[in-house]
């Protein structure tokens, strides 16, 4: 069965059990402070488990893109080395939100595997949770008894907390789980070792394919467990592993999910898969990593030097390094796989095809720049080796290469061993640990449990219509971090405060108690669908009713910038073309920033055109048309720009100004008139194929123009109120350069004249052409004169004293033949006579200078030189 059909069968099976099929959510998490990437199928549904969002569909099924490269689930180092862990993989899931529980989950999993996919029962094993005394948790006999109906009891194995108690993170929903494993070894091997002994033992052909999680607890901050209000089912089946089983192969890389990529790599690099372990690992690493990187970029996470972007950059670099070392690839090549990937996965994940050009460009650029780094690093490593005494290279030096140049440590170790050197690894590890500790200490955050004051299923946001409402606090908690100290997060029953999201910053404002006490809200954020108001303190009486008031001025400025962002997006597509897609956005009270795909610099003419396009729509006074809670399909029919990779609920909000129609949860002006004016303040590159525009609007634009106006007035007045200041400045500049030229000519003439009169005063003393004199010019000019005279006159003994800008200098020039014949030394002369001008100097025997701070001594020095003859 082809992988496409395997996925389809899964979804259709659960659809036949009344599940709603939903598309994969974006793998990149933009508004979740606890996680960078979706690392399990349950992540997009977290808020349902936490009871923080109203459940619309109680049964859902999907295939979710997951990435396990950081945090609690990190498989990166295994990937490519083994044959069944990937960075990016698809997790097939069926979900019950407070609907069915263990019984159905187990029955349907069994039915699907054995009756639909027709997997031989004799290769299956299941595990159940054995219980854990320290947690006070009993063995999951319920699941055990249910499994007994389907599978022989010697195939039901007990598992400990590590394998059979699933937790999302340090806190949050969790529960016992039951895993399904396959044993796809040959009959011969099975005869040698029973499969039951190999379950959960990291055997590449005895692997877990499906995990059924029975979500029923919540892990609190103090580590204790409490029951969740509802019981849920969360299952996750590794799609690539399932394909391995159903396609009768022994490795995920031999399924049609990977073979097209591997074949492409073989033909591009001329190697063959399956001949050498080193090359095979490289091929697996690259074919795996390109998927992760390509989908991350398509989902909006570009490689960068910090945070989630850095994680993506490191994955790509790992692939480049394997290509560099084991496939001898010294030029960018991985980007070429994007074509195959799009061909193969585009049907189910259209984002990869829609973003193909951008993805390719970004990967190619990253490859080229890392290959340059590798080249530089090799050079630096050579220096390090040269400076190394003995045969062991310092781990600290290797860390420096790793930290500042991104030079991978395993490559360093490899090159060293090829050259007969070793690396002090413990030194390296210590340096790395030290750095990690530093950044951990800076980022550490302690979160107390929520204090629940009032049960509430969903906090209603009323901030589109109101900036003030009466509210009650439903829960709060204290959060302590090094960075911000102690802060409180407050949740209300309803709120006018807009939480940071969709690029727009969170509202600030205040809470007013009935007795007039005021508590400032310094920011508003959203986590798992809870709107959290951030304050430095708690109100005195938390159970009071409060007036919640948004800072209206600040909000109005953000509104301007958010609506202007939509108009800018429209303008970019009109002026530059419809390839323009939003790649990032920031909206606050001061300015807006918009990143978009485009492959060349935006020219000044295009900037003008874009500004005019937006300003024309501001002048048109377009009314805001807001469509709140309309079905996604309807919004798309109305012409809303559908963004891939965005996670939308069943209904969406569409914002329209004239022909600009976008799905958006942000706050906006009622009429574009309010924006007043739109001015682009910057344009530049963010990455290959991604440009950034910054712009200002409204009052900020007005202040900008006023400031410019003031400056212009000042410029004009200093130009004696010239009618055309630009013309006046250009003519001043012309005049200035003409004057400069004139001065240069004059100076040259002067030097010529000086030289002429100097020549005339040369005395011949015993065959030596002697001149000691005062010339008040700068040292450079005197040096030139001395050398010129020396070239024209034989046997020259020249000495000059000069005063220039209050300082004294002495210059001594003696023809080289005199130095040799008579033993004269210009250096000695200026050193000794330098004392007279309270200074010092030196140089060579035939030319030397001294500088000092006493011009009074010059005439004595000029006189005394004679004594050296
Ligand atoms: P394993 O022990 O094999 O690493 P796990 O216990 O980490 O698996 P779960 O967190 O239960 O796995 O995830 C559910 C399913 O997702 C697994 O049964 C497996 O089929 C699949 N899966 C997990 N991690 C990966 C990965 N890195 N690559 C591919 N599939 C994976
Ligand atoms: Mg794992």
Automatic annotation (TrEMBL):
It comes from Wenyingzhuangia heitensis. Its EC number is 6.1.1.7. Residues 1-707 form the Alanyl-transfer RNA synthetases family profile domain. Consists of three domains; the N-terminal catalytic domain, the editing domain and the C-terminal C-Ala domain. The editing domain removes incorrectly charged amino acids, while the C-Ala domain, along with tRNA(Ala), serves as a bridge to cooperatively bring together the editing and aminoacylation centers thus stimulating deacylation of misacylated tRNAs. The keyword 4Fe-4S does not apply. The lineage of its organism: Bacteria, Pseudomonadati, Bacteroidota, Flavobacteriia, Flavobacteriales. It is found in: Cytoplasm. NCBIfam families: alaS. Its cofactor is Zn(2+). One of its GO terms (molecular function) is alanine-tRNA ligase activity. Binds 1 zinc ion per subunit. This is Alanine--tRNA ligase. The gene is alaS. Its main location: cytoplasm. The keyword ATP-binding applies. Catalyzes the attachment of alanine to tRNA(Ala) in a two-step reaction: alanine is first activated by ATP to form Ala-AMP and then transferred to the acceptor end of tRNA(Ala). Also edits incorrectly charged Ser-tRNA(Ala) and Gly-tRNA(Ala) via its editing domain.
């Amino acid at each position: 069965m082809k992988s496409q059909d395997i996925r389809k069968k899964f979804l259709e099976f659960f659809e036949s059990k009344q599940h709603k099929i939903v598309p994969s959510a974006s793998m990149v998490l933009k508004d979740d402070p606890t996680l960078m990437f979706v690392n399990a199928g349950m992540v997009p549904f977290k808020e349902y488990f936490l009871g923080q969002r109203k459940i619309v569909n109680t049964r859902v099924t999907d295939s979710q893109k997951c990435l396990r490269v950081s945090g609690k689930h990190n498989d990166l180092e295994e990937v490519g080395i083994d044959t069944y862990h990937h960075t990016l993989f698809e997790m097939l899931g069926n979900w019950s939100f407070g609907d069915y529980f263990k019984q159905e989950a187990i029955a349907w999993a069994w039915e699907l595997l054995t009756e639909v996919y027709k997997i031989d029962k004799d290769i299956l094993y299941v595990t159940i949770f054995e219980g854990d005394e320290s947690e006070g948790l009993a063995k999951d006999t319920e699941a055990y008894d249910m499994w007994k109906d389907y599978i022989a009891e010697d195939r039901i194995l007990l598992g400990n907390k590590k394998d059979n108690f699933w937790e999302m993170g340090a806190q949050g929903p969790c529960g016992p789980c039951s895993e399904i494993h396959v044993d796809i070894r040959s009959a011969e091997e099975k005869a040698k070792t029973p499969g039951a002994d190999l379950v959960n033992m990291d055997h590449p052909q005895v692997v877990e394919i499906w995990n059924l999680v029975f979500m029923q607890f919540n892990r609190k901050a103090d580590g204790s467990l409490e029951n969740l209000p509802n019981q849920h089912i969360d299952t996750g089946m590794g799609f690539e592993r399932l394909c391995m089983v159903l396609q009768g192969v022994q490795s995920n890389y031999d399924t049609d999910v990977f073979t097209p990529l591997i074949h492409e790599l073989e033909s591009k690099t001329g190697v063959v898969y399956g001949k050498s372990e080193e090359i095979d690992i490289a091929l697996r690493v690259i074919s795996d990593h390109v998927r992760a990187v390509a989908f991350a970029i398509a989902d909006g996470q570009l490689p960068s030097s910090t945070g989630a972007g850095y994680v993506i950059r490191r994955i790509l670099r790992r692939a480049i390094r394997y290509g560099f070392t084991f496939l001898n690839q010294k030029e960018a090549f991985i980007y070429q796989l994007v074509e195959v990937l799009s061909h193969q996965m585009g049907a189910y994940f259209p984002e990869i095809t829609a973003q193909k050009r951008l993805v390719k460009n970004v990967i190619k650029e990253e490859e080229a720049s890392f290959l340059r780094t590798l080249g530089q690093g090799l050079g630096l490593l050579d220096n390090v080796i040269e400076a190394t005494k003995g045969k062991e290279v310092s781990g600290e030096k290797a860390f420096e290469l790793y930290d500042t140049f991104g030079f991978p440590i395993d490559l360093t170790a490899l090159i060293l061993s090829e050259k007969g050197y070793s690396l002090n690894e413990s030194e390296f590890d210590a340096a790395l640990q030290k750095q990690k500790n530093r950044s951990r200490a800076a980022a550490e955050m302690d979160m107390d449990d929520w204090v629940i004051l009032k049960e509430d299923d969903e906090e209603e946001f009323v901030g589109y219509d109101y900036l003030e409402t009466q509210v009650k606090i439903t829960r709060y908690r204290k959060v302590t971090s090094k960075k911000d100290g102690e802060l409180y997060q407050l949740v209300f029953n309803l709120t006018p405060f807009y939480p940071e999201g969709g690029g727009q910053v969170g509202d600030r404002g205040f809470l007013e108690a009935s007795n007039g006490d005021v508590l400032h809200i310094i920011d508003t954020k959203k986590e798992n669908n809870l709107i959290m108001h951030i304050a430095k303190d708690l109100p005195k009486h938390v159970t009071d009713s409060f007036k919640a008031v948004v800072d209206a001025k600040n909000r109005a400025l953000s509104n301007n910038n958010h609506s202007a962002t939509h108009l800018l997006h429209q303008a970019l597509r009109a002026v530059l073309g419809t390839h323009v897609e939003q790649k990032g956005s920031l909206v606050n009270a001061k300015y807006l920033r918009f990143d978009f795909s485009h492959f060349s610099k935006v020219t000044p003419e295009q900037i003008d055109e874009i500004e005019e396009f937006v300003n024309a729509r501001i002048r048109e006074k377009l009314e805001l048309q807001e469509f709140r809670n309309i079905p996604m399909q309807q919004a798309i029919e109305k012409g809303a720009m559908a963004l891939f990779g965005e996670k939308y609920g069943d209904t969406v909000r569409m914002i329209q100004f004239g022909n600009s129609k976008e799905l958006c949860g942000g706050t906006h002006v009622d009429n574009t008139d309010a924006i007043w004016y739109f001015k682009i303040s910057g344009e530049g590159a963010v990455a290959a194929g991604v440009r950034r525009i910054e712009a200002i609007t409204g009052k900020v634009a007005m202040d900008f123009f006023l400031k410019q106006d003031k400056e212009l007035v000042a410029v004009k007045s200093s130009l004696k109120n010239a009618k055309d200041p630009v013309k006046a400045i250009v003519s001043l500049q012309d005049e200035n350069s003409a004057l400069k030229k004139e001065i240069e000519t004059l100076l040259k003439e002067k030097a010529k004249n000086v030289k002429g009169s100097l020549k005339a005063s040369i005395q011949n003393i015993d065959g030596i052409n002697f001149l000691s004199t005062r010339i008040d010019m700068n040292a450079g000019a005197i040096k030139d004169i001395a050398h010129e005279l020396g070239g024209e006159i034989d046997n020259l003994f020249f000495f000059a004293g000069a005063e220039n800008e209050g300082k004294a200098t002495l210059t001594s020039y003696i023809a080289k033949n005199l130095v040799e014949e008579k033993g004269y030394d210009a250096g000695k002369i200026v050193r000794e006579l330098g004392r007279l001008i309270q200074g010092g100097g030196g140089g060579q025997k035939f030319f030397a200078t001294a500088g000092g701070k006493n011009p009074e001594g010059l005439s004595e020095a000029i006189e005394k030189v004679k004594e050296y003859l």
